[in-house]
Specification:
By secondary structure, the protein is an alpha/beta fold. Helix content is about 35%, strand content about 15%. The strands form two sheets. Strands 6-7-9-8-10-11 form a six-stranded antiparallel beta sheet, with helices on both faces. Bound molecules: iron/sulfur cluster (SF4). The site of iron/sulfur cluster has 10 residues, from helix 4.
């Protein structure tokens, strides 16, 4: 008997996967990444790394999927709405389960395992949401939640005797005590702290996303670029990312593509990248915003170029500085 387990690398999904593996089933782990996970390249100890580490530790094969284009469509237009930010958790889970179902069928597995706990997350782990997700992903009865199965209707794997229901847990709610007790029982080493959701749950980040969506500029490339730096809506169709440190400056510059405005302010100032409808007004405003973030002690040369075309330069003392807060996306102003 083969099962697919959704392994984020967090404690709950690691425990759920290990529980079923220890029952003697062949478990293959599946991990989803997105431009908004707080993991992988953005954080050394993030969940991408953790999923790999945890899969190795508990001895399961791991497949990683990044459904970026499908995810962007879900964020733009979620049937079940957003949570506290721009996080479409129910639709996001439906997408992941649909993809997991496809993979399950491809490899001849019989059901899906998750580390979900009833009542743990307000938007996507209440009983109504769990039911909607299961039905709309075409997996009615085929999702086994080993940590909370005891407080739910028996799933098909339990009904058919593939899994011994008496060995499943009855954890409910937001407390993590029961899972922490299980760490020792299942000998999980170096487990991750509970994750607080992806970047889309952050209200300030959500303001950028909503602005990009409203401008018709929310796509895979822009979702990756505008994760970095300070974000400015220079105009409806022209957005600017301004690096906050040397690392972000380098990353932002690497995103430059044909037609982008690249602004570099010497070794002491930020690097910025403007994208969208480039005209003299937008370029002028972008230069003034960048000038605001340059050190004031000595004038610096600010170079600008349109990637692959025209170049120019000016000194900070010849650029009229403006208050950038007028170009900050709504809630993002509070940062
Ligand atoms: S927090 Fe982000 S990744 Fe997690 S379910 Fe919600 S939208 Fe999806």
């Amino acid at each position: 008997m083969k099962a697919v387990s959704l392994l984020s690398g967090g404690l709950d999904s690691t425990l759920a996967t290990k529980m079923i593996k220890e029952m003697g089933l062949d478990v293959i782990a599946l991990n989803f990444t997105s431009p908004f996970c707080q993991c992988g390249g953005k954080q050394k100890d993030g969940c991408k790394h953790k999923a790999v580490e945890m899969a190795e530790q508990i001895g399961v094969e791991l497949k990683m999927i990044n459904p970026a284009a499908e995810f962007i469509e879900v964020v733009k237009n979620p049937k079940h709405g957003y949570g506290s930010g721009a996080n479409p958790c129910i639709d996001c889970r439906i997408l992941k389960f649909k993809l997991a179902k496809k993979y399950m069928e491809e490899i001849g597995a019989s059901f899906i395992i998750t580390g979900e706990v009833l009542g743990q997350r307000p938007m996507s782990q209440n009983s109504r949401a769990l039911k909607i997700i299961e039905t709309e992903s075409g997996l009615d009865g085929l999702i086994l939640r080993p940590l909370c199965a005891g407080v739910m209707e028996p799933s098909i794997p339990e009904q058919k005797g593939w899994i011994d229901r008496s060995k499943l847990r009855s954890i409910e709610g937001r407390s993590r005590g029961a899972q922490l007790d299980m760490v020792e029982e299942f000998k999980i080493l170096n487990h991750a702290c509970p994750a607080g959701g992806c970047l889309l749950t952050d209200k300030h980040f959500a303001a950028k996303v909503m602005d990009l969506i409203a401008s018709g500029m929310f796509d895979v490339d822009n979702s990756r670029l505008f994760v970095f730096g300070r974000y400015f809506k220079v105009s409806k169709k022209f957005k600017l990312a301004v690096g906050r440190n040397a690392q972000e400056n380098a990353v932002i510059k690497n995103f430059a593509a044909k037609g982008d405005l690249v602004i570099e302010a010497g070794s002491k100032g930020p690097t910025a990248l403007g994208r969208g409808e480039l005209n003299d007004d937008n370029r002028g405003l972008a230069m003034k915003i960048v000038a605001h973030y340059c050190r004031k002690e000595e004038p610096q040369e600010v170079r600008y170029s349109v990637y692959g075309a025209e170049e120019g330069s000016a000194h900070t003392d010849s650029i009229e500085e403006i208050d950038p807060s007028a170009f900050v996306a709504e809630d993002y102003k509070r940062r």
